[in-house]
Amino acid sequence: MFKKGLVLFLALVMVMTIFTGCAQPAQAPAAPAEPDPAEEAKPELSFGMITDVGGLGDKSFNDSAWEGIQKAGKELGVEPVILQSTKQEDYEANIGNMAQSVDLSIAVGFLMEQAMKVGSEQYPDVKFGIIDTVVTTPNVMSVTFKEHEGSFLVGVIAGLATKTNVIGFVGGMDFPLIQKFEVGFIAGVKSVNPNAKVLVNYTGAFDNPDKGKEIAISQFKQKADVIYHASGGCGIGVIQAADENDFWAIGVDQDQSAVSNNNKVLCSMIKRVDVGTYTIIKAYADDKFEGGKAIELGLKEEGVGFSDNGKNVSAEIKAVADKAKELVVNGTIVVPVTREDLEAFKPVEIK
Amino acid sequence: MESRINEFREGLLNTLKEIAYPLVAILISVIAGGILVYSFGKDPVLAYTSMIKGSLGDWNKFGETLVTVTPLILTGLSITFAFKCNLFNIGVEGQFIMGAIAAVWAGWAFAGLPAILHLTLTLLVGAAAGGIWASIIGWLQAKVGSHVVINGIMMNYIAMYTSNFLVRTALNVSGKAYSVEIADTAKLWRFSQAFVQFKHSRLHTGIIIALIVALVAYYILNKTVRGYEIRAVGFNPDAAEYGGINVSKNIILSMLVAGMFAGLAGAIMTTGVQYRVNTLFGFTGYGLDGISVALVGNIHPIGVILSAFLFGVMQKGGPLMQIQGIPKEVVGIIQGIIILFVAANFVKVIMGNIKQRKELKKTALQEGVE
């Protein structure tokens, strides 16, 4: 009995020492840190970004968005906050957490759409931003991209680079968002090479590289020598097919030249997510934040474009592409968005 | 009378000790984690205060923590129940997923039923889906002899891809990456509907269901013949069989019940939190966390409740730690250290060692005297 009591007593002593050992330093550093940095920054401006479960380090969407936020942070002298989600179910709670801590919370990616709707309604006095999808709550600013304009440019490049006059397009799922890519691309090709034929196929998925490869190979067998994809993960298969069969692939969203082992990515249509996040913060800092508004970033705003890390686009072609960009920016060319627009589209000579 | 009091005192002491050991372990691990945070150049006090603030700082935070605790209690119970029969139900993740997707189907397909009936039916369908999924694993172990762990892992993958397939096809109307939404009649009641304190949290009545299920699990395991048989099979299957207990029947049965707990966890996530199922890019984690919850909870239904709460606090405290500038990775490390210390139960081991040594000394002394 005595021993048991002793053991318990010792355990209690351990507990108590830890309490005291813990409590004292808890107060000590709290005292000098009185001007809480979070509170200090608050009256000026504070902002943060919430990622989906993909998180930072994806060398793509999320990293790019964070770059834009850091750039804005540097210019405004603010340390931006990052919150990476670990569970899909947490998006809503995370948006709430962020909204309680900063003035402007930016969520990145269409997966956050539902959570943003709920979160922005729960905190009507806080400002929000969302990238790549539209939420219409009056305190949310949405940024999407004019993918058709970027696709138009890579269409121009494809039209000039083809030798067989057959060009392929591999889409993910056949719905309006992806049709924007298709339509813009075809318009680009027709503008510089009216004789070229564009083969259009859809994989019906975004996560099936095998399917992407299969379609790319069948297009290659129909003599296509440049194939543009807007099919998410299926595109890996398209680029693999290009590696194995020696034709050009065109990447999407980010520069995909690193995906190819044999440098068979001609160029990539890129979405500048960093420009998107930067735009929202800039608008907020300049008192131009417009809640409920959806901004579409196109060539004019440098929100889309093409990139060529593989150095496969010749100087002459690049010059034409730059010219095409100029014409789109100054409004001479209006890039079609839907298939109906495309039928009515009259190619403008680019020179 | 004297002996009665002594007995009571002894029981109380033992219970206190059972609680004190993990508490001491938590405190020591908090210090160890704090040193680590400090060595990363961050303020350890800030780290822990934001963990507590982020999970228990106000009613909404507390509510959100309980939202996470609810499925963890149930998946922890699932592991516990199977463990009593000496089965390692690593397939809990798949059972959770099947429960969630089955609840979406029931909550959507039977729209039009009265609310109470519809909700009950939806939860039962979810539990049944998890139960069936698990009993397949149990049946394979009992009748074919293929190991429950291998089958469990494989069934997890089958469940995940089945769920994704259904989300994309039969249970999809919008063409988006998530399934249809369940009808309002199949949704669990939320505290935010009546209490303004919980306005911004999704706290729902599922937590009460989970607590009741924990008591039921305790009752079945400890107070019924069936529970005795299950534990006997877990303790020594040969002896149990010799004693007239049907081993394979009990294996399948305990997997069935374990699967029902996990399936119910999934169904509660659907009816209380998500109202739909998203395309999964990987496992949800609730099942796998349930394994740690059960082990930290000492494979005891009531311990599971406490340890699920610990896990909930750590998971919901994470976001605010991140907002306060502590990297996501460091947050993960702290959580890992705490679990490691608690699960290792080292305080008990050390105490046991001290006791043993003392006793050895004592006997040696006595022998010396003689």
**Which architecture of the largest domain in chain A per CATH?**
3-Layer(aba) Sandwich
**End-to-end CA span of chain A:** 98 Å
Structural class, judged by helices and strands of chain A?
Answer: alpha/beta
Fraction of residues in H or I helices of chain A: 40-55%
Question: Largest sheet of chain A at a glance?
Answer: 6 strands, parallel
* Order of strands across the main sheet of chain A: 2-1-3-4-5-11
Order of helices and strands of chain B: HHHHHHHHHHHHHH
Outline of chain A, from the CA principal axes?
A: globular
Listing every helix as H and every strand as E from the N terminus to the C terminus, the arrangement of chain A reads HHEHEHEHEEHEHEHEHEEHEEHH
Rounded average pLDDT of chain A: 85
* Range of strand content of chain A: 15-25%
- Largest β-sheet summary of chain B: none
Low-confidence runs of chain B: none
Summarize the entry for a quick read.
The complex is a heterodimer of chains A (351) and B (370). By secondary structure, chain A is of the alpha/beta class.
Helices, strands, pairings?
The complex is a heterodimer of chains A (351) and B (370).
Chain A: H1 2-27, H2 37-41, E1 47-51, H3 61-76, E2 81-84, H4 91-101, E3 104-108, H5 113-122, E4 127-131, E5 140-145, H6 147-161, E6 166-171, H7 176-192, E7 197-202, H8 209-221, E8 226-230, H9 234-245, E9 248-253, E10 265-271, H10 273-285, E11 294-297, E12 304-307, H11 315-329, H12 339-344
Parallel strand pairs in A: 1-2, 1-3, 3-4, 4-5, 5-11, 6-7, 6-8, 8-9, 9-10
Antiparallel strand pairs in A: 10-12
Helix pairs in contact in A: 3-10, 4-5, 6-7, 6-11, 8-9
Chain B: H1 2-39, H2 44-56, H3 59-84, H4 92-109, H5 115-144, H6 148-168, H7 206-223, H8 225-235, H9 237-242, H10 247-274, H11 286-296, H12 301-323, H13 328-344, H14 346-369
Helix pairs in contact in B: 1-2, 1-13, 2-3, 2-12, 3-7, 3-10, 3-11, 3-12, 4-5, 4-6, 4-10, 4-11, 5-6, 5-10, 7-8, 7-12, 8-10, 11-12, 12-13
